[in-house]
Structure formats: structure tokens, C-alpha cells
Amino acid sequence: MGACSSKNGLGSDQRKVEMRAQVIREFETSRQEDAVTIANLKEKLDAAEERLECSVALRALKAGLENVSVEVGAADYRASGALQQRVDELERQNREMERQSKEMEQQNKEMKQEIQWAASAPGM
């Protein structure tokens, strides 16, 4: 029996060594899988950071474009205001010229009548 128990003792030690080696292999495998997982997560994080930076830059660009749009709109409004003032001034000048033209036509008629009256006067 003593031989059996010592044999069991050696087998038990061998089994412990094998179990320990198996645990170490599983730990190493798990460590490698974790390293791959960490690398994948880091890549995803880097990509997310890049998208976030792009998103922030895009928002800033959009805000800048909105400011430009507002400035262009204000400039258009000012320009259209100046243009409208010029149109109003030209219309006013046109009305004044029409009024003067009517006055001249009236004076022309009056002068023709005076000439006709003077020509038909008995002393002429």
C-alpha cells in the first residue's frame, strides 16, 4: 500500500503541475484576448474622438457660415436699402421733370395764344 500511496503522491504532484500549467496557459490566453480587446477598444475610442473632433469642427464651421450668412444678409439689406433710396430719388426726379414738362407745355400754349391774339389784333 505504501507504494500505491507514494505513487498517488507523485501523480498528485504531477497533476498539480499540469493544473498549474493549464491555469497559466489560460491566464496567458486571457491576457492576450484582453490585449486584443483593449487594442480594439482603443481604436474605437480613437475613431470616436476623431468623429467628435470633426463634429465640433463641423459645428464651428456651421456657426461661422451662419454668421457669414447673417452678415451677407445684412449687407444685402443695406445694399437694397441704398438701391431703394436711389430708385426713390430717380422717381422723384422723374416726377419733377414731368411737372416741369407740363408747365412748359402750358407756357407754350399760353405763348401761342398770345401770339394768335396779338396777330389777330386790329392794329397789326
Structure characterization notes:
The protein has one helix spanning 2-119. The protein is rod-shaped. Residues 1-6 have low confidence and may be disordered. 0% of the residues are buried. It has 124 residues and is an all-alpha fold. The protein has one domain (22-114). The chain is built from one helix and no strands. Residues 93-113 have a biased composition (Basic and acidic residues). Residues 93-124 are annotated as: Disordered.
Q: What sort of overall outline do the alpha carbons produce when their principal axes are compared?
A: rod-shaped
Task: Tell me the number of structural domains.
Answer: 1
Ends: how far apart? 176 Å
Proportion in helices = over 70%
Sequence of secondary-structure elements: H
Mind sketching the topology for me?
Elements lengths: L1 H118 L5
Characteristic key phrases:
124 residues; mainly alpha; 1 helix; 95% helix; rod-shaped; disordered N terminus
